[in-house]
């Protein structure tokens, strides 16, 4: 048995393809025995239980090939040989032909695996060593071929060595040049041009003091821009403590390892002396002697000339005024690349900015902690903290601060004194994580950034704290009088993020803004009032679109939902009930169509908690009652409706009758429900409200359908559909297509039914109608079930169940489970069928759906009979 490592990563004769266990086996084969803990932390540095992950890998390897990994005390080793061992032996014996034949490709070629810094370094070192050994073999064979006069063979070996040199570098480039020249290779000119210097590539970059975590996507972007896409200057921009320097160090180390720049990678940390001679500092870092006869920048450009070098400038914002000179330097030196870090966008034409956010709060590898959580855990270990079961609280803390590294580190420094849950309480907004033992003061860094703003930006910034979830230029102008130039200044300084027309503050900066705003009490009240007025007026401008469910209104509700909620809550607290009342019905339609019943009823109950006047309470009480009905809480809905008087306003009366009809329908009194909905349609016609009228007609058709008068129901649905088409009510049309399709299904007109339902499904998906889509899927499942397409039915019902859970449609959940049970029984999947029936019956019982409970029991009885259990069926 042999482990293949050249050109692939595989255990010969065994079908085992898991890359990390195979890499572990390779490490043991090449490096010898190692302790378990060392291996666990090397291969799974971010795992919650590294030793557990190691144990799983060992089990997998020994299952694939018994004895692949063996233990001697706490140390592990493998007896397996590798093709790399054979290559080393061939080179040592001078068996050059065998060495070349063994080289099937780079070490562990094609390995696509997330690795920690130390393991990645080992893989690259092994690839480099193997390339050097094989290049030596090609050079020896090339010279042998020259002595024989076999110039074609010599040229092949010379060019193979050159290919390895380009990828990895050689210790003997002079030999390569000689062989390329003597064999007449056309690649000689390329070699001399690209590799004129023969000394090792310099890498004057700080070694990281701690293991690098996360930033995989950002590092790949930096490499793509500077190496593959020809970008010559990339600046990492971000607020203080976000990890710009660490990311730049990791990127520079990667450039060194991969030898992207023939003349090296050089680090230059820029201190606070903005008056320092920047060209002299760069020349010193590059170890270039200056010429006093030429000005600094001209001399530097002449000295760099054609050198292929990457200069990393850490903290370049201090030299903002010299950005133009840097840009000209990049233009004059065609092989010069700059990677800079800055709190400020410098604004040069050649500069490409990459804005850094916090570390990812989602795991990059399934089963392992996210980079943000891994950073917390690593820093907590420094103070000997054992978190136990507190990882969930750590995740919450990292989420609160959006993965900001310095905030996470400061919070983790207290982990030995407080459990994780207490850290969340102490260091969540409005409380910032604070330093311990002289560590960096995050608040002081943020204050420093604020104080360095120009006056107009300092005036606007505090008020931005009142926005929640972001804002746009229109809102900033209306609420704060901020112009685009001022917002651009804040964006350039990484104090405001800007993406696709939306702007916002990082939670840390929002707390700074709110603290600054609190120092101006009169202004704070004025800004909050302006914020509430602006967003209420904005919703008022979109009332018709909200009624129709059109995209502009939906985009507003999605994009500015947090701001709208805050404005609504402030208006409710300040008693602006007369301003909110006209919005109650349009917002109810939005929440109802989107299936956001819980959220909607909280909005309306926020007003009810403060409104005392009965007339003012009515629209909010009726809206909340409707949503409670949708949630299956009929008694709660009735209590809310008790104080609402009818006969004052046709529009209000229409809503009262709508609610009463739905209460009757949910209790199985279809005749009463139909009467209420007839009156609701009449009141809606009187109030000239087409949305209320079509809703009443829809419900009336459902009630009439439930009494068995299918043709009358079809006429009501068609009347509702015609009204909706006339007024462009696409969102309501999707609901009507669903109801009409279901009716046609019951009437036996399956093809028409499926066409209607699919038309409604396309419309619901285009408009993002999360509440109606599950019902359309459910009815399509009913059609599939009736036609014997049981697998298709399972797929439809499962999708409907998922959507029903999201929108908390409890009756639909019950029906989906029952039908999933029925379809599973038809496929003779008894265990699955019984599980769904149990869940369906429990759900139907909880919401008081007697008809569904009865249907579920009948289906279960049939299931027992099908399994020849008549006694259980009778029960």
Automatic annotation (TrEMBL):
InterPro entries: P-loop_NTPase, TPR-like_helical_dom_sf, TPR_rpt. It comes from the Bacteria. This is Tetratricopeptide repeat protein.
């Amino acid at each position: 048995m042999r482990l293949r490592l050249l050109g692939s990563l595989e255990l010969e004769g065994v079908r085992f393809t898991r890359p990390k266990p195979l890499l572990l086996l390779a490490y043991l084969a090449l490096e010898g025995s190692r302790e378990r803990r060392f291996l666990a932390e090397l291969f799974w540095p971010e795992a919650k239980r590294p030793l557990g992950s190691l144990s799983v890998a060992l089990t997998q390897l020994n299952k694939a090939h018994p004895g692949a990994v063996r233990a001697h005390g706490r140390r592990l080793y493998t007896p397996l040989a590798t093709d790399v061992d054979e290559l080393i032996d061939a080179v040592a014996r001078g068996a050059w032909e065998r060495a070349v034949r063994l080289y099937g490709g780079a070490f562990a070629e094609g390995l696509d695996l997330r690795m920690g810094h130390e393991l990645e370094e080992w893989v690259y070192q092994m690839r480099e060593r193997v390339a050097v050994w094989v290049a030596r073999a090609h050079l020896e064979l090339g010279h042998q071929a020259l002595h024989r006069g076999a110039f074609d063979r010599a040229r092949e070996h010379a060019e193979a060595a050159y290919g390895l040199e380009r990828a990895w570098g050689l210790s003997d480039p002079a030999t390569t040049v000689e062989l390329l020249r003597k064999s007449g290779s056309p690649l000689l000119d390329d070699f001399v041009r690209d590799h004129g210097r023969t000394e090792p590539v310099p890498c004057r970059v700080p070694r990281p003091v701690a293991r690098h975590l996360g930033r995989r996507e950002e590092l790949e972007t930096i490499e793509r821009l500077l190496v593959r896409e020809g970008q010559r200057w990339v600046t990492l921009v971000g607020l203080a403590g976000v990890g710009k320097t660490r990311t730049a160090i990791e990127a520079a180390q990667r450039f060194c390892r991969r030898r992207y720049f023939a003349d090296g990678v050089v680090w230059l940390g820029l201190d606070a002396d903005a008056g320092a001679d920047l060209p002299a500092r760069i020349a010193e870092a590059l170890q270039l002697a200056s010429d006093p006869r030429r000005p600094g920048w001209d001399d530097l450009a002449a000295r760099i000339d054609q050198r292929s070098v990457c200069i990393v400038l850490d903290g370049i914002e201090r030299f903002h005024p010299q950005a133009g000179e840097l840009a000209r330097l990049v233009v004059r030196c065609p092989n010069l690349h700059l990677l800079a870090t800055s709190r400020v966008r410098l604004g040069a034409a050649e500069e490409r900015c990459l804005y850094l956010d916090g570390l990812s709060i989602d795991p990059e590898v399934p089963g392992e902690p996210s980079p943000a959580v891994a950073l917390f855990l690593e820093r907590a270990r420094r103070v000997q903290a054992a978190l136990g079961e507190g990882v969930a609280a750590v995740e919450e803390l990292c989420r609160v601060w959006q993965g900001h590294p310095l905030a996470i580190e400061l919070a983790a420094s207290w982990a030995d004194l407080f459990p994780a849950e207490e850290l969340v309480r102490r260091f969540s907004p409005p409380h910032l994580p604070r330093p311990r033992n002289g560590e960096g003061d995050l608040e002081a860094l943020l204050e420093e950034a604020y104080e360095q703003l120009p006056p107009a930006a300092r005036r606007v910034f505090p008020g931005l704290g009142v926005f929640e979830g972001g804002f746009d230029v229109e809102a900033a102008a209306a609420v704060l009088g901020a112009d685009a130039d001022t917002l651009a200044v804040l964006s350039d300084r990484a104090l405001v993020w800007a993406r696709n027309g939306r702007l916002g503050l990082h939670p840390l900066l929002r707390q700074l803004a709110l603290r600054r705003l609190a120092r101006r009490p009169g202004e704070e009240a004025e800004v909050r009032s302006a914020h509430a007025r602006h967003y209420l007026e904005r919703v008022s401008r979109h009332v018709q679109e909200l009624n129709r469910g059109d995209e502009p209104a939906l985009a507003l509700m999605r994009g500015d939902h947090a701001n709208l909620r805050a404005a609504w809550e402030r208006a409710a607290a300040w008693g602006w009930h007369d301003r909110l009342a006209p919005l109650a019905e349009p917002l109810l339609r939005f929440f109802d169509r989107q299936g956001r019943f819980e959220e909607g009823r909280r909005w309306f109950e926020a007003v009810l908690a403060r409104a005392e006047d009965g007339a003012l309470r009515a629209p909010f009480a009726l809206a909340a009652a409707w949503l409670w009905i949708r949630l299956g809480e009929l008694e709660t809905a009735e209590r809310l409706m008790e104080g609402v008087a009818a006969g004052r306003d046709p529009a209000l009366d229409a809503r009262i009758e709508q609610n009463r009809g739905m209460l009757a329908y949910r209790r199985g009194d279809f005749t009463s429900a139909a009467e209420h909905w007839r009156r609701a349609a009449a009141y809606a016609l009187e109030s000239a409200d087409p949305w209320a009228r079509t809703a009443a007609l829809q419900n009336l058709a459902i009630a009439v359908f439930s009494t068995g008068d299918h043709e009358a129901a079809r006429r009501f649905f068609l009347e509702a559909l015609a009204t909706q088409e006339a007024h462009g009510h696409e969102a309501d049309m999707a609901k009507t297509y669903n109801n009409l399709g279901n009716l046609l299904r019951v009437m036996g007109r399956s093809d028409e039914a499926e066409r209607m339902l699919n038309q409604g499904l396309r419309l619901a998906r285009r408009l993002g109608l999360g509440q109606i889509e599950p019902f359309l899927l459910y009815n399509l499942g009913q059609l599939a079930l009736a036609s014997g397409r049981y697998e298709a039915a399972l797929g439809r019902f499962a999708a409907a169940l998922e959507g029903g859970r999201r929108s908390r449609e409890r009756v639909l959940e019950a029906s989906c489970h029952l039908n999933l049970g029925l379809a599973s029984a038809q496929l003779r999947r008894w265990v699955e069928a019984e599980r769904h029936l149990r869940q369906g019956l429990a759900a139907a019982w909880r919401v008081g759906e007697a008809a569904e409970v009865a249907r579920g029991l009948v289906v279960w009885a049939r299931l027992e009979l099908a399994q020849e259990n008549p006694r259980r069926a009778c029960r």
